[in-house]
């Protein structure tokens, strides 16, 4: 399995747990609550990816450029999460300006 596939599977698995389990079960569904949880999940993904690839010199291909594990993980995570985040906020009527509902 390619290094890129490992990171993409890691991202997809954590996002699936977050958007199918953690976020829907939150009692308080606000932007601030989501951002707190998202920060923790992002750190979990970065720590896991770092444990797998930090110091190995492995390069990751982002179609037009090569990057390290950190950049690849963060950029692909953002690209994968943005549509899920927008969908969840719309479905649960979460105020995107940060105000309370």
Proportion of β residues?
5-15%
Oligomeric state of the chains? single chain
Helix content: 55-70%
Helix and strand run: HHEEH
Spatial sequence of strands, sheet with the most strands = 1-2
Question: Count of helices?
Answer: 3
What is the total tally of β strands?
2
Give me the secondary-structure category. mainly alpha
Distance between the termini: 44 Å
Indicate the overall shape.
elongated
Low-confidence stretches: none
Task: Explain what this protein looks like in three dimensions.
The chain is mainly alpha-helical. The chain is built from three helices and two strands; from the N terminus they run H-H-E-E-H. The chain has helices at residues 3-25, 31-53, 69-91, and strands at residues 60-62, 65-67. Strands 1-2 form a two-stranded antiparallel ribbon. Strand 1 and strand 2 (65-67) form a beta hairpin. Helix 1 (3-25) runs antiparallel to helix 2 (31-53), helix 1 (3-25) packs parallel to helix 3 and helix 2 (31-53) packs antiparallel against helix 3. The chain is elongated and about 40 Å long. The model has no long low-confidence stretch (mean pLDDT 92).
Summarize the helices and strands and which ones pair or pack.
Blueprint: H1 3-25, H2 31-53, E1 60-62, E2 65-67, H3 69-91
Antiparallel strand pairs: 1-2
Concise overview:
With 101 residues, this protein is mainly alpha-helical.
Key features of this structure:
single chain; two-stranded antiparallel sheet; 68% helix; mainly alpha; 101 residues
């Amino acid at each position: 399995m390619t290094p890129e596939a490992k990171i993409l599977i890691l991202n997809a698995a954590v996002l699936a747990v977050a958007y199918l389990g953690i976020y829907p079960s939150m009692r308080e569904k606000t932007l601030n609550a989501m951002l707190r949880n998202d920060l923790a999940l992002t750190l979990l993904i970065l720590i896991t990816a770092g444990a797998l690839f930090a110091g190995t010199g492995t390069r990751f291909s982002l179609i037009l450029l090569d990057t390290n594990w950190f950049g690849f993980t963060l950029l692909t995570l953002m690209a994968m999460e943005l549509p899920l985040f927008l969908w969840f906020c719309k479905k649960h009527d979460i105020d995107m300006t940060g105000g309370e509902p």
